[in-house]
């Protein structure tokens, strides 16, 4: 995993990038309807956003099929991940999570002095749910499952996670399911863990407008959880104060713009196809992805590889997975994927 200092130097102001494929951003968004709503709302920037937040919250509650007291709105799902980590590990305990996993919640939990019990993904890149169940003990405050997973882009079957939640999610142990990339799956409604929350299980689901909706820089996300969990959040943080009215109005317009969402899903699938074909032609073996990014092993250390790619105007990420170097590339527009494939050939083939 690259150091923070190194990451900063690569993320910060690289306007010369011809293909920015390093943060799983949507290359098409936000939706034109969301942009319009944002522009129209800018003139109301002198007013607080509580009404807009209430409206988005009820819209999301209806969309998820739960009552409003299950929905925590947030400036990006990162906020939900961090708040849950802080709340759960204030008094110690351990976190069971996969290796490799998306690190945001884990990083905050470890900073709160949680013990991270790592459970390696299986050889087919799914969560090892039996292994995770065995790792749970009486000090386990939370299990974190990212599905589909980042950085691998791989899927753990929904039915297996549901079974796991029914056995593991109790008053003492929350199962946190990060569904940032859910919409890229063919049938998101069949894959989400929200029905478990309706069953009364102590499950928290995090969702975001940063991916399919293309609103990463506008910061809107939400958590679905039991009302009693939401009460605990409300006891610490003043709900809605970190939200921004323009983004709330943009999110509402985007939720209604299913045409844009479909375009974004189809465009991502086309980019995946183009990238897999191109990578295979060059002799690489991409891990089958269900998301807007994919990983593949590279025969070069991460840092020199990234430096070489950046010098060609291509931003990607490198990960050490099970002691091997991998490149993670986000899906961009067709021309960006071509630029990436050409640079890759020059650097590695
Ligand atoms: C798995 C996962 N969860 C959460 C996030 C955070 O997204 P945001 O805070 O923009 O909603 C990301 C961002 O890339 C992610 O990959």
Concise structural overview:
The protein is an alpha/beta fold.
Strand composition percent: 15-25%
Bound molecules: pyridoxal-5'-phosphate
Largest sheet strand order = 2-8-7-6-5-3-4
N- to C-terminal separation? 24 Å
The share of residues in helices is: 40-55%
Record field, number of beta strands: 12
| Helix vs. strand class | alpha/beta
Instruction: Please compute the radius of gyration using only Cα atoms.
Output: 20 Å
- Poorly predicted runs are none
Mean residue pLDDT: 95
Give the overall form: globular
Number of helices: 14
CATH homologous superfamily annotation of the largest domain: Type I PLP-dependent aspartate aminotransferase-like (Major domain)
From the 3D structure, determine the CATH topology of the largest domain. Answer: Aspartate Aminotransferase, domain 2
- Reported CATH architecture of the largest domain: 3-Layer(aba) Sandwich
The main sheet comes to: 7 strands, mixed
SSE sequence, one letter per element: HEHHEHEHEHEHEHHEEHHHEHEEEH
């Amino acid at each position: 995993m690259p150091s923070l200092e190194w990451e900063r130097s690569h993320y910060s102001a690289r306007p010369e990038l011809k293909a920015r494929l390093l943060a799983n951003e949507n290359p098409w968004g936000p939706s034109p309807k969301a942009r319009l709503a944002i522009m129209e709302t800018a003139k109301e920037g002198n007013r607080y956003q509580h009404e807009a937040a209430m409206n988005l919250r009820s819209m999301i509650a209806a969309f998820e099929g739960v009552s409003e007291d299950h929905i925590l709105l947030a400036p990006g799902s990162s906020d939900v991940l961090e708040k849950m980590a802080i709340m759960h590990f204030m008094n110690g305990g351990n976190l069971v999570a996969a290796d490799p996993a998306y690190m945001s919640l884990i990083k905050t939990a470890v900073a709160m002095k949680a013990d991270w019990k790592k459970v390696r993904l299986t050889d087919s890149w799914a969560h090892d749910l039996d292994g995770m169940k065995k790792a749970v003990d009486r000090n386990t405050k939370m299990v974190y499952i990212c599905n589909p997973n980042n950085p691998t882009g791989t899927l753990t079957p929904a039915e297996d996670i549901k079974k796991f939640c029914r056995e593991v999610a109790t008053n003492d142990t929350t199962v946190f399911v990060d569904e940032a990339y859910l919409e890229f799956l063919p049938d998101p409604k069949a894959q989400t863990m929200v029905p478990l929350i309706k069953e009364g299980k102590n499950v928290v689901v995090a969702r975001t407008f940063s991916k399919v909706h293309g609103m990463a820089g506008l910061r809107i996300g939400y958590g679905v959880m039991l009302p009693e969990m939401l009460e605990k959040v409300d006891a610490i943080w003043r709900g809605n104060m970190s939200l921004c009215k323009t983004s709330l109005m943009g999110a509402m317009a985007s939720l209604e713009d299913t045409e844009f969402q479909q375009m974004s899903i189809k465009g991502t699938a086309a980019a995946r196809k183009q990238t897999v074909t191109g990578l295979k032609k060059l002799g690489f073996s991409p891990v089958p992805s269900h998301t807007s990014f994919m990983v593949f092993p590279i025969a070069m250390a991460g840092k020199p590889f990234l430096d070489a790619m950046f010098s060609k105007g291509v931003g990607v990420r490198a990960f050490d997975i099970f002691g091997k170097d991998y490149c993670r590339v986000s899906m961009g527009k067709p021309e960006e994927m071509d630029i990436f494939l050409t640079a890759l050939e020059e650097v590695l083939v």
